[in-house]
Amino acid sequence: MKNPSHPSRGVPIAVSCLATLLKESWVRSLFVKSDGVKLLTPLITPASTQQSIQ
To answer: Which GO molecular function, any one, fits this protein according to its record (predicted)?
Structure first.
C-alpha cells in the first residue's frame, strides 16, 4: 500500500479484501491475537484525527 499502482483504487481494494478475510472466524481470531487492530488503526484514522491524538 505504500506505492499502489492505482492510488485511487488501492485503499478500497485493500479494505474489501480485508473485509472478505475477516468474515472467517479463524482469521478474525488470528488478526486480533497478532495485534492487527493496533497496526491497522493508524492506517484508517484520518490525518486530522492522528494530529489531534499526538
So the answer is: proton-transporting ATPase activity, rotational mechanism
Q: What is the DSSP letter of 34?
A: T
Distance set, CA 4 to CA 8, 13, 28, 36 (Å): 9, 11, 25, 21
**What Å distances lie between residue 42 and 10, 17, 53, CA to CA?**
16, 18, 11
| Global pTM exceeds 0.70 | no
10: left (phi over 0), alpha (psi -120 to 50) or beta: alpha
User: Does the structure show a pLDDT above 60 at 34?
Assistant: yes
The grid coordinates of residue 27 equal: 482469521
